[in-house]
Structure formats: C-alpha cells, structure tokens
Amino acid sequence: MKIFGPDSKKPTFAELLADCTRSAVHLEIHDEHMTSDPGYAAFKAGRDFINQDQAQAWVDVVAPAVARGVVVRRARIVSEPVSDYTRYMHAVAPAYQLAAGEQLRWLPRPLASTLAIPGNPFWVFDDRVVRFSVYDGRGEVIGHQFSEEPGVVELCARAFEAVWNLATPHDEYRV
Questions:
Q1: What angle do CA 133, 7, 16 make, to 5 degrees?
Q2: Which residue from 19, 10, 1 is spatially nearest to 126, judged by alpha carbons?
Q3: What is the dihedral sign for C-alpha 59, 87, 106, 154?
Q4: DSSP 105-146
Q5: Please, what is the Cα angle at 131 between 22 and 33, to 5 degrees?
Q6: Per-residue pLDDT for the chain (175 aa), expressed as one digit of tens each?
Q7: What distance in Å separates the CA atoms of residue 89 and residue 39, rounded to the nearest whole number?
Q8: 75 in helix, strand or coil?
Q9: Which terminus of the chain has fewer CB atoms gathered within 10 Å of its CB, N or C?
Q10: Residue 138: which residues within 8 A CB-CB, separation 6 or more?
C-alpha cells in the first residue's frame, strides 16, 4: 500500500480517470464527510447550493471518460433516516455526477450488514488500481492510499459489485 499525505505528489483523480479504458467505480460509506464544503453550508441555510464552477469542473473531468466508453459508477451506503449531508449529496447529484454521465445508486445501511466492505471509501480504476480516501475525525480528507495488489483490487471490486447489486438507482431513491 502506498500512502500519500495531503502535501505529497500523488496521481490526481483526473490522471487516474484519464488512464481508464473500461471502468471507474466509487464506493462511499460515510453519512457525512467534507462538511466544511461551502455548498453544504448554503444547503443547510436554504440558499443556492450548486457551485456551477465546481459542477462544471467535475463534468469536465468525468464526461470525457464516459464519452470514450468508460463506465463510471458510484454507490453510496447511507443510514436512514438520512442525514442532512445525505440530502445535500442527493440534491447536488444531478448537477455533478449525473450531468457528467455517472451512474449512481444508494444502499440503505441495514442492507449492507452482511457485506464485506473495506474500511475506507475507494475508487477502483479499470480493475487495476484502488485509491482509498482517508478521513480525519471531522470527516475531512487527510490523504490517500493506493494499491495495485491484485487481492486488494479484487476485494474492492467485489465489495462495490455487492453494494451495487443491492442498491437503488438515484432516480428511484427518495430521501
């Protein structure tokens, strides 16, 4: 496992996605993270919460991969009733993930009880490399871990597929 701290040079998400030819999958497992996001504060205050520049930046990175045939899927495991942060993530998804061409599903946490899931959220790129996000106690990203070990990649790919198969598509999931 290669560990990068917040100030280390590491491959960016955009670089990892640009190298993809088939798939990129992301499993999110926290009910709240990155709550310092100004968009989340605006959402909680009832103000306009879509940052058009951020949303376009996401679309600019992900949409070209989707256009060249990379299947980008994201699954979120969520507690119910959902947290305010989950409501926020559900509300911004059309401007970010869905606009970029991602497929998105939601899995209520009780349905995940018997699944073997890694301890940190992750991306798997082309079933060859995993990028784990490591968070502090306040839910802020403090670094990433990368692995190309076949066993780790397989564990994460299987975990994602297990969640995906049980999860509800975004358009059908109600918060």
A1: 50
A2: 19
A3: positive
A4: EEEEGGGGTTS---SS-EEEETTTEEEEEEE-TTS-EEEEEE
A5: 115
A6: 776 666 767 899 999 999 999 999 999 999 988 888 899 999 999 999 999 999 999 999 999 999 999 999 999 999 999 999 999 999 999 999 999 999 999 999 999 999 999 999 999 999 999 999 999 988 888 888 999 999 999 999 999 999 999 999 999 999 9
A7: 10
A8: strand
A9: N
A10: 35, 36
CB contact at 8 A, 16 and 10: no
CA distance 162 to 140: 26
Amino acid in position 89: M
Q: Which residues contact 32 (CB under 8 A, 6 or more apart)?
A: 83, 85, 86, 139
Cβ–Cβ < 8 Å for 68, 20: no
Burial letters 119-136, b for 16+ CB under 10 A, else e = ebbbbbbbeebbbbbbbe
Residues 19 and 13 sit within 8 Å (Cβ to Cβ): no
